[in-house]
Automatic annotation (TrEMBL):
SUPFAM superfamilies: Fe,Mn superoxide dismutase (SOD), C-terminal domain, Fe,Mn superoxide dismutase (SOD), N-terminal domain. Coiled coil: none annotated. Residues 184-285 form the Manganese/iron superoxide dismutase C-terminal domain. It comes from Bacillus mesophilus. This is superoxide dismutase. Residues 95-175 form the Manganese/iron superoxide dismutase N-terminal domain. GO terms for molecular function: metal ion binding; superoxide dismutase activity. The keyword Nucleotide-binding does not apply. Keywords: Metal-binding, Oxidoreductase. The keyword Metal-binding applies.
Amino acid sequence: MEQQKYMVYFEEVAKWAIGVKLLLEEHSLTAEPFLELDQELTFLLSKVDEVTNNNPITEEAIEEVKELVASLFQQAQHLFNGDRNKTTQRVPIGEHTLPPLPYSYDALEPYISKEIMKLHHDTHHKSYVEGLNKAEKMMEKARFTNNYDLLKHWEREAAFHGSGHYLHSIFWFVMKPNGGGTPGGSLLGQIKKDFGSFEQFKEHFTEAAKKVEGVGWALLVWSPRSHRLEILQTEKHQLMTQWDTIPLLVLDVWEHAYYLQYQADRAEYVSNWWNVVNWDEVENRFAQASKLKWKSF
Ligand SMILES: [Fe+2]
């Protein structure tokens, strides 16, 4: 039985490798990296042949092929995405793009219908992208013209649409057809450490999601400060934050931060505050934070 399952897996692998090779051929992709990929796919096919001709198929052989497939898959994805693969590229101001869904609209059925996915991704997420781009352009214009009259409005827009864009860009990718189950590896270990058990985590997250007042999100987050996982709710997502960003420099403008000395003159406080900024620490935070680069859209 087990052996039969392995055979099905290897057949799928071979089908995929042949499919990619055909694609390379069809589009006459003969640049160096494509040729390299082609050669490695040939090697993979010969490996699959070799393994399936050896009875019985061993765990070791399976692991070897799995590793090869994972690395080739990544390579192929990178090559075929071409300039859309911008993992390390800076998104220019006002040029965010709608990430393509990593599966078809109906792939999550029956749990999430095709109609919802289409509307949610093509209409709602798209409008977040457009709104964020507009807000960024308008703030850029404010910097050029030194006219900040509408800054509050555009910051709100950037927060609302930015959070919408970034959270949805996470959302599509943390789902997949035939998903579910439990996580593995170090994540499972951390969940157990921080929530007691996976079941307790799941229950807490479920309740957090159900109890979000009005619109919003439930989020599992990593706190670099407490070195722990946390479950958070966000009611709406636009309350002047862009989720999926990391604060580097912050300025407290609650009244308790300046009132005793400046009374209502917040402007004076802000202006003077620049004299005490510790840029070494901000640099340090930037050096750490900028190592984290998700694929850009
Ligand atoms: Fe949404």
